[in-house]
Amino acid sequence: xxxxxxxxxxxxxxxxxxxxxxxxxxxxxxxxxxxxxxxxxxxxxxxxxxxxxxxxxxxxxxxxxxxxxxxxxxxxxxxxxxxxxxxxxxxxxxxxxxxxxxxxxxxxxxxxxxxxxxxxxxxxxxxxxxxxxxxxxxxxxxxxxxxxxxxxxxxxxxxxxxxxxxxxxxxxxxxxxxxxxxxxxxxxxxxxxxxxxxxxxxxxxxxxxxxxxxxxxxxxxxxxxxxxxxxxxxxxxxxxxxxxxxxxxxxxxxxxxxxxxxxxxxxxxxxxxxxxxxxxxxxxxxxxxxxxxxxxxxxxxxxxxxxxxxxxxxxxxxxxxxxxxxxxxxxxxxxxxxxxxxxxxxxxxxxxxxxxxxxxxxxxxxxxxxxxxxxxxxxxxxxxxxxxxxxxxxxxxxxxxxxxxxxxxxxxxxxxxxxxxxxxxxxxxxxxxxxxxxxxxxxxxxxxxxxxxxxxxxxxxxxxxxxxxxxxxxxxxxxxxxxxxxxxxxxxxxxxxxxxxxxxxxxxxxxxxxxxxxxxxxxxxxxxxxxxxxxxxxxxxxxxxxxxxxxxxxxxxxxxxxxxxxxxxxxxxxxxxxxxxxxxxxxxxxxxxxxxxxxxxxxxxxxxxxxxxxxxxxxxxxxxxxxxxxxxxxxxxxxxxxxxxxxxxxxxxxxxxxxxxxxxxxxxxxxxxxxxxxxxxxxxxx
Amino acid sequence: xxxxxxxxxxxxxxxxxxxxxxxxxxxxxxxxxxxxxxxxxxxxxxxxxxxxxxxxxxxxxxxxxxxxxxxxxxxxxxxxxxxxxxxxxxxxxxxxxxxxxxxxxxxxxxxxxxxxxxxxxxxxxxxxxxxxxxxxxxxxxxxxxxxxxxxxxxxxxxxxxxxxxxxxxxxxx
Lengths: 686, 173
What we know:
Number of strands of chain B: 0
Oligomer: heterodimer
Number of helices of chain B: 9
Structural class of chain B: mainly alpha
Largest interface: A-B, 70 and 77 residues
Number of helices of chain A: 7
Order of helices and strands of chain B: HHHHHHHHH
Largest sheet of chain A: 6 strands, mixed
Radius of gyration of chain B: 17 Å
Shape of chain B: globular
Shape of chain A: globular
Distance between the termini of chain B: 36 Å
Radius of gyration of chain A: 26 Å
Structural class of chain A: mainly beta
């Protein structure tokens, strides 16, 4: 009997259990949950502080829409709402809350009863005049330059140079566990005691060696990521202030999001990599949601949840996240100033999103911090704007809130907010280009007619102008499917949706008021990451699937799409690599930073594959030409397992190119291979 | 169903207990069976499931991917069970597992089911969690996220645990 039959047999035995305690029946549990003190409010509208007056426009719009729907009976469908409704709030205020009390009341009114309808109307009446006042005094943040897509040339710089982190927007760097320049490699080695940053000197390909390190000895340090900017190395990491679940370290991507975390930033001078020198420390409450670096300024986004019910507005620390800055006047952790906290249209959950700008060159400059009540699920940044994109749930379907901040030379200025139907897949779902913001969403909504009580998916593309007003849209793309990947290339966008086969849509966005689908290609399987190779060629990484059933197959499907003809995208080449294994997977399919452009048409990615004899991690190098994709090398690197510590040592193999050599690195070994024939030059155990 | 579930998770994030109830309705018997086989004690299993429901509802705003609700709630329960096992070992209640009358099914070999439960209780707590999560349909890669261990480790531990159970069950499996 194989393992599956064995497990099935146990399942059959356990399924014979029919005696279930009534106290845990759904009915009793719902009753119990409703009786909980903290669970009273179902309304999302709350009384506003006077300063947040502008936001009332949005509330009113929502309430009109909400008025059309049948409220709050799960299982009974609301009437279909207008699925293309975009709600724009250009009159965002630059001012934060007037006092901590105002914030306290906002949080309280979320967890307790919202104001009655009368209160709401009164507040609204009062606010109308103020909306106009704040609109007059408001000016937008600059939006002159916009994002440029990352193409082959800009990503590698020079063909025989060194690789860089695979980022979304040119000039907007993203943090990673490995960073390099033309000579040095910085790598986070994970260990049970926090690990260390190991610095390798790869100046001489025949003598790559460890030259320095930054050690962490605190057990609670985890998830270290880096930015390298000239001779400045900036580290970001999280600390679990209480490790809730004993022996399990809580990873950022586990099902159990980390609680009570604190994010840290350390800036080091590495002009002498053997002697890194600490220049500055910064901390911010919450888990690291995301970050970006533009020129010398690091923008850190954390998410912070309020625990329990703050009882007293004087107990500010109970409901306001704290920051600390080693170069500020007050170096102790202290609550964010109430004037820097924005109160958006409603408090959806007791979450804050906190954004700080930390100058890594001018280290004496105090950090700037803004916080907003409400969650951010995706972060996107162009060179001049940072967007916080949050999932929202309404009776009539899901939506995404957009909050935009101008980020200019370390300042963070709120410049607008809007909401669009549907949710994003990831950061690649959005793009800013020539003053327009484009956003692709998958929407859950009830259908009409026969399908009135069926939740269906619809996909949309919206184009918003610099006031975040809708200029054009395509809605109801591929009903029943959902977005698997999106990539923007200037005036064009490519979108992959999937249910059984993979339609690749090419979308022309050159006229912001009239986006159009120009062509589509249906192929089995799907791509979850698309990488532009040239202006006309795109590489797709994903999975193959059975054309009839939609069932995915094992293996890593690489496809080469020719997008030179907008009306007719072509799959020029496709191959399902490693399909002979019982299971094969590349993290590059979901984490673009593990994918690396090695130059000269070579691309690398970590691959994990399994068969009967066990699991193997490799680094795969593919050669991509006009007409084909070829597996050029599978590079292994020894993994040394410390006794009883195998969890910390397990890492995907990452690769970077330094001049003529490829350096592949696991948690405790660096393998140096020749870029010519991928023969092994040396192994450095560390 | 997938989309409806995601929507219900969304509503539950807005503190809608009824929506949470709909989600819980599809899972609660599985959760109880899991806890019962893991803890081997009806009262403890009941407590674990009840605590799990409360924790899940109160923390659902922290669930980042709506698709993962089932795995997420099993992750919460797994941790409660792990803690429960330790408590039971301390108070020596662990071996109280007896099939209740209501599980009596003449068509089934009762003796075998007792043996399976006993063989499960012989496993280390982590092995037991891995086996039971597998029994409830989770793949190694999902278990690796639930327990925060690499999936290769999960596979090898699962293999070893099954071998152990087979030996303890004396060739009947």
